[in-house]
């Protein structure tokens, strides 16, 4: 692929990869796409404190932004999904007014722009933001207004995903809410929350409503539970993307010679190009895998699965897209071509209209990477990357 696209570059220059690439490149300059981030998991610590003060919410553990950030990070990194989710009680508590919701959404777009993200899909469960008297429609409207204002100021394209929760019984209402707002920027529907004990097939009415409306579905599956969760998400609920999908590794055997033997489910996902929304750092923090180096992402990537990287919850996991990509590059020896492929995978998998995806790929993403390829090649010609 790279030989075809850049025939004048490749034979003449050895470009850095892995740790050397991390040292050679400002990863904020990479054109990025983010499809799996929770709005209530990515607030700025300073905003949490200010919004809590405005709302009269006195349950925060500290009013110092640095200490609060560290508190969220420690709480989320205990190796358990239920424990990881505990910090959301505080972020949700300060997102109960129109002004607060709009601010958080605007700051999300602002943060995306600062991190080099050109297109972002962000998700949340409106039902959690009605304690202050807002209806769910008013909640969605406030978030959309913040996203629209942010996009106008910073040029980031966006889509909003409405989440239903596994442990509730109002998923059909959430699906209908998503459908009502699709003309204003809602691009899909998700089922989130703890997997164990709450199978997706319990929410069939919601998914049937989404399918009847010719709408898009992503489902959290295979993060903290096994293949059954992934299979149900696909074959019962008709998911178009899978959130995480880490446990798909249980259906793949690595042979002694390094080749793979795929089970029927993993082969189906590979053949049908079903996208996997992978989140490295949060998967370590929730215990989905023990450490980054043991994550199945590089195996999926090398085998040709439609994978790409995401942040999940920037505040909780102390991350951003630049960090996730740098961590993966160093841990798995990724090249600039690998990073381009991941970004293209993400845009191909986005719930944005086809024309928008094509335009973003050809007018922004590929030209952005071409510039970086050219710069690294010039530096290679100058001998900057010689030696071990």
Give a verbal description of the structure:
The protein is α/β, with parallel strands linked by helices. The chain has a single domain (2-246, 255-381), classed as TIM Barrel, CATH 3.20.20.140. It has helices at residues 2-5, 18-24, 45-55, 65-76, 81-84, 88-93, 98-114, 136-154, 171-180, 204-212, 227-236, 264-271, 280-285, 297-303, 314-317, 321-332, 336-349, 354-381, and strands at 32-34, 117-124, 157-165, 186-192, 217-221, 241-244, 252-254, 260-262, 276-278, 307-309. An eight-stranded parallel sheet has the order 1-2-3-4-5-6-9-10, sandwiched between helices. Helix 8 (136-154) links the parallel strand 2 (117-124) and strand 3 (157-165). The relative contact order is 0.15. Mean pLDDT is 94; it is low at 1-11.
* Sequence of secondary-structure elements: HHEHHHHHEHEHEHEHEEEHEHHEHHHH
Please write the CATH class name. Answer: Alpha Beta
Helix coverage percent: 40-55%
Quaternary state reads single chain
Q: Quick one: how many beta strands?
A: 10
What layout of secondary structure does this protein have?
Blueprint lengths: L1 H4 L12 H7 L7 E3 L10 H11 L9 H12 L4 H4 L3 H6 L4 H17 L2 E8 L11 H19 L2 E9 L5 H10 L5 E7 L11 H9 L4 E5 L5 H10 L4 E4 L7 E3 L5 E3 L1 H8 L4 E3 L1 H6 L11 H7 L3 E3 L4 H4 L3 H12 L3 H14 L4 H28 L7
Helix pairs in contact: 2-16, 3-4, 7-8, 9-10, 17-18
